[in-house]
Amino acid sequence: MFDKWFQRKKRSEKGGLTFVQVPRHIAIIMDGNGRWAKKRGLPRVAGHREGMNTVKKIVREADRLGVKILTLYAFSTENWKRPKDEVDYLMRLPEQFLKSYLPELIEKNVRVMVMGDESRLPEATQKAVNTAKEKTANNDGMILNFALNYGSRKEITDAVKGIAEKVKNGSLVPDEITEDIIENHLLSCHLPDPDLLIRTSGELRLSNFMLWQLAYTEFWFTDVYWPDFNESHLHEAIQQYCGRTRRFGGVVES
Ligand code: V07
Questions:
Q1: Dihedral, CA atoms, 46, 49, 53, 56, nearest 10 degrees?
Q2: Domain definitions of the chain by residue range
Q3: Contact 1, 238 (CB under 8 A)
Q4: What is the Cα 2 distance to its own chain's centre?
Q5: Is the pTM of this model over 0.90?
Q6: Is 31 a catalytic residue?
Q7: Ligand 1 pocket residues where CB is under 6 Å
């Protein structure tokens, strides 16, 4: 169904030229893993494990559809407040994920990136993440960008500190501080802003995720819990995105 619609769209846009509006950069807040487990009488960590399988499924589908960047909010700076057992479990997931999935990512030419403060992560997690980044550093297919121990206010605070330092040492004057300069000090400086943000499990907020970068992003929310999120939900989000007109604050002539 989706594929047929997608192919038709490709042909019909711009007089047969391939002009496809599949979002270049999709960001996802993967919420509802704990609630998914609770609903089934399972421990919260069972939801996180199932959520990890959803990640694999959605990475495959996004790659197949030609998405260039997929950013996934895996762990926030606020998540440390959760029970120690749960945090310990979550911290082992990157390694587990990469153990079973890195070969496929390499085979698919996917590049793994991580955005966040990695210094607080357990040694083994840092090692696994660094190996994945190194082994995929030359891949030029889809970028799989994990927000790991990430918080947007911390990111912006660190950017301000970096800029202040440059002003202090004389390499920058306040008049030269532009939006571009600020952007270049963010953790996402090498990536274009997300075109589409998806949040699962019915919460309608950003929870400290990419506050600067989401300024003009289209949002799509669903009540579905992340472990239940599947290819059809991704298609629905993309179809809705394609039907919207993005104005970036201006007006579009009809
Ligand atoms: C985590 C699974 C998805 C649902 C949300 C919470 C649980 C994949 C990773 C990951 C991170 C970095 C990396 C490779 C994989 C991950 C955490 C939690 C902390 F390089 N899933 N996943 N990391 N969950």
A1: 160
A2: 22-151+197-205+213-242
A3: no
A4: 22
A5: yes
A6: yes
A7: 30, 33, 48, 51-52, 55, 74-75, 90, 93-94, 97-98, 112, 114, 129, 132, 146, 148, 226
Q: How far apart are CA 47 and CA 42, in angstroms?
A: 8
Give 249 Cα–ligand 1 centroid separation in angstroms.
34
What's the CA gap between 6 and 15, in Å, rounded?
A: 15
Q: Residue 154 belongs to what H/E stretch?
A: helix 152-168
> Where does 22-151+197-205+213-242 sit in CATH, by number?
3.40.1180.10
pLDDT in tens, 51-97: 999 999 999 999 999 999 999 999 999 999 999 999 999 999 999 99
**What is the per-residue pLDDT across 185-244, written as a single tens digit (0 to 9) for each?**
999 999 999 999 999 999 999 999 999 999 999 999 999 999 999 999 999 999 999 997
Q: Is 79 a catalytic residue?
A: yes
